[in-house]
């Protein structure tokens, strides 16, 4: 089939929930992907911060092939070796006590919300607890995750959602304090806001949130689904700060392409859920957790976090150059290989033109061009990105 036939077929078959670019992807290799017409794209989106090690990585693929031949799925009535390996390694790098494997980011958020609600319930027996989340946050599309997502237009058609969710202003501790009362059981925040526009938390803010949780016996939940797994130059972004959350969510690069997520907890939060409180058929299955285990081994073996720290200044320098050069590019924000260029109302147009010119980038918010490349990118990849982006920015600079 040619490209247009695929697109027509897709438009006839799929429920229309996505506005897709007219590109039909066929395969990937390293930091590049190829469409059905053989056109090559440099991928600075990594499948939305997923493919940390790039495409077609032999070590990763071989591990999965080996697992496919052994066993793909069992059930949570039994133990399985990859999930035991993965859970032990993950709690170690995250500094958590307990791990629960899920199938997606949103599902990890659901688990975290259940911990928060039950924590509150066990504490005082009330059934009207409140959770504080943030404006511009994104936590996923299931009803629970949507309830705590800051973007109104995502929530509104599906009201009523979970009651008792309050939204504070990110990086504004006073706005959080103003919402805390005797019903509040948890504060949920991305350590670096992703979809909302790439906003890293300030030290003062995140330490203040931790203290507020300690002082009021509330749980601090860190959504690390996008900013975790080495992306910001630490294994988890909260490790940049002098805090430890009670609950952590992960997904995206956790399995580097196999759908898998996790929620983790430590201390008192690790004891909240008991047998019968939560479950999933697929969660923690051998194939998905073999991916997690392999990914965590590769992080160690290749010191990927160090590579992120080594390469980040070069990416920042290149992006800062565009802020200098083009009037409509007004700022760069980010941490490590999670960066955003503020391009105002031209952002969507820039992304579209970049894709047409063989560079994959995504938006964040309505005015930010997002850079979440594979963590293994080289200077050559950054130079290739810069050449295409410069051409595109120049064409919009009128
Ligand atoms: C992507 C994302 C989610 C949702 O993950 P899904 O796997 O799409 O359900 C939640 N939180 C953050 C911060 C994300 O970036």
Task: Write a brief structural summary.
This protein has 398 residues and is of the alpha/beta class. The protein has helices at residues 3-13, 46-49, 58-70, 81-94, 105-124, 143-147, 152-155, 173-177, 203-215, 286-301, 304-325, 347-356, 379-396; strands at 25-29, 32-35, 40-43, 98-102, 130-134, 165-168, 184-190, 192-193, 199-200, 219-223, 247-250, 261-265, 331-335, 338-342, 359-360, 362-364, 368-371.
Compute the number of strand runs. Answer: 17
The small molecules bound here are: pyridoxal-5'-phosphate
Compute the number of helices: 13
Anisotropy-based shape: globular
| Separation, N- and C-terminal Cα atoms | 40 Å
Radius of gyration, whole Å:
21 Å
Largest sheet: 7 strands, mixed
Given as residue ranges, the uncertain stretches (5+ residues, pLDDT < 50) are: none
- Helix fraction bin: 25-40%
Structural class: alpha/beta
- Mean pLDDT comes to 97
The fraction of residues assigned to DSSP E strands is 15-25%
What order do the strands of the largest sheet run in, or round the barrel if closed?
A: 4-12-11-10-7-5-6
Query: Would you list the SSEs in sequence order as H and E?
Result: HEEEHHHEHEHHEHEEEHEEEHHEEHEEEH
